[in-house]
Amino acid sequence: MQINLAKSAGFCFGVKRAINIALETKSGAKVNMLGDIVHNEDIVRQLEKKGIKKITGLSAGKNKTLLLAAHGTSLKIINRANELGYKIIDATCPMVKEIHRIAKDMENKGYRIIVIGDKKHAEVLGISGQLKNKTIVMDSLKNLPPKKLQSIEKAAVVVQSTQNLEKVLKIVGVLKQRIRKLEFFNTICQPTRIKQKDLKVLPKANDAVIIIGSKKSANTKRLYEISKSLNKRSYWVAGKKEIKSNWFKNAKSVGITAGASTPDSTTQEIIEYIRTNY
Ligand code: SF4
After folding, report:
1. What does the pLDDT average to over 246-265?
2. What is the sign, positive or negative, of the torsion defined by CA atoms of 170, 258, 38, 236?
3. 162: CA distance to ligand 1 center in Å?
4. Smallest CA separation from ligand 1 atom 2, residue
5. What amino acid positions are annotated as catalytic residues?
6. Distance from the CA of 181 to the center of ligand 1, in angstroms?
7. Per-residue pLDDT, 172
8. pTM for this structure?
9. Ligand 1 midpoint to CA 15 (Å)
10. 70: exposed, middle or buried (C-beta count within 10 Å: 0-12, 13-18, 19+)?
11. Which domains does the chain have, with CATH numbers?
12. Most buried pick, 127, 205, 259, 274, via CB within 10 A?
């Protein structure tokens, strides 16, 4: 069976940067990372082995360094960490920081901020957590809040960096009909756009598609959704153990891509496994 790996598979610049910052920070000091610095269990485990402890909440921070995740952190948490005495090292991706900047700027100009993204995702919570007023978060047209929208004079829309552009444009189209003054900022990051562009071809050009990445990874989920809409034989796996033999029945080719936080070692392991077994 032929194996076709997407050129854009694997780490994006923001994830690479966050991992490098984490590794550079570990120099004898007590380093904590607040949640997963990137959404990949293997990477988090590797960093923990190097002595960077994952914490889920803040405690006394004296003599401790706190690493902030690539997908951003709310101001409330940052302020609390400062009060507790942590030394803060911020590994937030510059592209997420740019979303924060736009949202704050537009809020200061009197716009209500609408975030298109996954309601509970850390990046979306981080964006909302930069602002004085409550944001409206929308993940689909099904959840359009008509009453809230009616009262809005002017709104600015920002987008979680890993959203599916086509879906976002549909939501923005409807919002434009409801809100007189609407400013739209397409803040889907460049690596996500390239990955999604590759996925317009890969599922159509192959009999089956494997998308590799953690089940916690929002961008991997998007890739899977796009692939599945174009090729029913699309499968999302975190590792080779999840691969099932019936997926490749009569398949002459398999397309492979990997989310922005998936290490190349995992992708290579899966390619090797498929090459050996199918
Ligand atoms: S997916 Fe985009 S926004 Fe997120 S870390 Fe990577 S480059 Fe940054």
Report:
1. 96
2. positive
3. 7
4. 189
5. 123
6. 29
7. 96
8. 0.93
9. 7
10. buried
11. 2-10+191-277 (3.40.1010.20), 13-93 (3.40.50.11270), 95-188 (3.40.1010.20)
12. 259
Q: Which residues line ligand 1 (CB under 6 A)?
A: 12-15, 70, 93, 95-96, 161-162, 189, 191-192, 219, 260
Residue whose entry in the numeric block shows the structure tokens 């960077």: 52
Q: Which strands form 208-212's sheet, in the order they lie side by side?
A: 2-5, 253-258, 208-212, 234-237
Give the tens place of pLDDT for each residue, 89-126.
Answer: 999 999 999 999 999 999 999 999 999 999 999 999 99
Residue type, 109: K
Asked if residue 102 lies in contact with residue 157, where contact means CB atoms within 8 angstroms, the answer is no
- Quick one: pLDDT band at residue 142, thresholds 50, 70, 90? confident
Residue 51, SS3 per DSSP: coil
- Tell me how long the chain is: 278
Distance 244 CA to ligand 1 centre (A): 30
